Amino acid sequence: MKLKGLKARAYNIMFHVHTVSGIVLSVVLFVIFYAGAFTLFKSEFNSWENPQMRGLAMHDLKISKVLSAIESQTCGNVNWNEDVRIAPPRKNKPAIGVFGHLNTAGPSEGRFDFLLNPLDYTPIEAKGTVGETLFRLHFLDQIPAIGRYLAGFVSLFFLFASLTGLLIHWRNIFTKFWSFSLKGAKKQFWANAHTVMGFLGLPFQLMYAVTGAFYLLLPLILLPAVGMLYAGNVNSVYKIVYPSYGIAYSDRAEPAENLDNLEALYSQVLHENPDLEITYIGIKNFNRKDGTVNFSVRHKSPESFDNSGSIGYRLSTRAELYSQIPQKNKGYVQQVINGMGQLHFATFGGLLLKSTYFILALLTCFMVLAGVVLWREARQNKSFTVRQKHFHSRTTTIYLAICLSLIPAVPLLFASELIVPASQGHKLAVNTIFFTAWLILGIFGVFLKKDRLLVHWYLFLSALFSLSVPLSNGYKTGYWPWISLLKKEYGVALTDAFWLCAGLFQLFLFLYAIRKTAPFGNSRVNRQSAPSFENKAKRV
Asked: Which end of the chain is more exposed for a tag (fewer CB within 10 A), N or C?
């Protein structure tokens, strides 16, 4: 089935735009989608990376005990005039999370951030490196100052690459889809693989391109509006979506005791909204008359799309300042912004939707790699010089090494989370292992120079590190997969089961690949032209 395509000139323009944008963005796109695929399950493997949170039972939150624990752990150095956040126990996070600012005049400066046991309100030594590292990596936050903006522009140009790819393949997209085969010429294989994977994941990729660019480039988008319409006041713009930004506070406000009102408002919100759960309690100017509390709420049903909102009160008078209850009184702007967040992070639809997102993200990664190899194969002909062919080949090898070396580095990050002893420098040590391993493995792949060897080694190392994840968990914590199931720690069991299956699958691919030459062009062995040992002996 052929559809009407572009004219010759328009086709050539779109083709070159797609090729250039794709090859420039390929490495960053792979990193974003691969890290983002695991970030989808950040809450599910939260108990895996924090063994001390396993076995904790859900308990009702006592705010007075939480505030006393904060005072005790910070030696009374809390700055109650700044934001203090409390995360009540939830299904996937049974511990109580607290975050806030310290007085700069005290013995310590900066912020505090720790977890409390919901039973006795004692601190829990939490790690949580894996989820945070992969979450930040998926929008390049490890790159100082420009990382998020770089990821935003990559998302924006990925939108152009997706649309131009659709336009140039539109005429025969169905023909290529149904003619996809693992056999045939190398160039044809990678061309069909790139087209088919792009066709299957196109709605998913467009959604991520739009939502990713929106979230990461929003500050730049709002700059003209802030400067011209709001006289440089950023809060005036943000309060349209987040009303808490529009509340004014005074350093001269009179002192006040607001603890009883805070506990009463907490009980009131739970009583009036039985279908909602409180995800965060934000307090500001707690010991003053103009103090406020913001309750971030979420619908208990994971399948609900419009499932997040907030309610704000003045602590001293218990007066309601704003209310954005999901599925009730949220405005159009709030629904659009929150809806984009739901789409991007797959926070509706449960595990089935997250698993679908995960598979589509991996297919997108394969599409990116197929496009890179296709770019190389399309330039191995007589119209290019030997030097140009060598440049294209080496560039492809470097790209593949950077991307594929991330695959074994991720399970190594998981294993290191439990192997490295808990200490003050735990996160730094685990991140150092992860990024150093990624760098060394990438350099190792570049010096291999042959794609076949590169793929074989990365498959073997990835299988080895993947199998080490459940082993490290069982050895360090005693939670072998069957024990996790017996103790109903399903997040821990699923994490171990995933890496066990991934390791066995990668080991199978490795054993298969060393018997069959992988379809990477510059390392293909011509078995017919290679003389056997017996033939050599006869000639001698």
From this structure: C
Q: What is the mean pLDDT of residues 144-170?
A: 89
| DSSP for residue 141 | T
Contact 311, 297 (CB under 8 A): yes
Sign of the CA dihedral running 176, 177, 183, 185: positive
**How many C-alpha atoms does 400 have within 13 Å on its Cβ side?**
32
The predicted model gives 357-373 an average pLDDT of 94
pLDDT in tens, 461-474: 999 999 999 999 99
Query: Degrees (nearest 5) of the Cα angle 525, 529, 532?
Result: 95
Residue position matching structure tokens 């080694």: 457
Measure Cα distances from 354 to 170, 413, 501 in Å: 29, 21, 18
Mean pLDDT, the chain, rounded, equals: 84
Q: Which residues contact 349 (CB under 8 A, 6 or more apart)?
A: 302, 303
Whether the predicted pLDDT of 20 surpasses 90: no
Q: Which long-range contacts (CB under 8 A, 24 or more apart) does 384-391 make?
A: none
Strands 276-284 and 123-124: unpaired
Who wins on pLDDT, 348 or 446? 446
- Rounded CA separation 6/22 (Å): 20
In this structure, are residues 354 and 225 in contact, taking their beta carbons and an 8 Å threshold?
no
Give the lowest-confidence range in 6-15, 34-43, 65-74, 399-408. Answer: 6-15
- 538 pLDDT above the threshold of 80: no
Q: Which of 146-160, 162-176, 377-391 has the lowest mean pLDDT?
A: 162-176
pTM confidence score: 0.86
Tokens 């890179």 locate to: 372
**Phi first, then psi: what are they for 440, rounded to 5°?**
-65, -45
How many Å apart are CA 480 and CA 169, to the nearest integer?
A: 49
CA diameter of the chain? 103
Element (H, E) at 100: strand 96-101
| Pair 78, 114: CB distance under 8 Å | no
Residues 6+ apart with CB under 8 A from 533: none
Torsion of CA 420, 433, 428, 144, to 10 degrees: -160
User: What is the rounded CA–CA span in Å between residue 204 and residue 37?
Assistant: 12
Token pair of 532, please?
């056997």
Using CA atoms, how far apart are residues 365 and 201, in angstroms rounded to an integer? 10
What's at 242, amino acid-wise?
Y
In the chain, what percentage of residues exceed pLDDT 70?
86
Report d(CA 141, CA 150) in Å as an integer.
Answer: 9
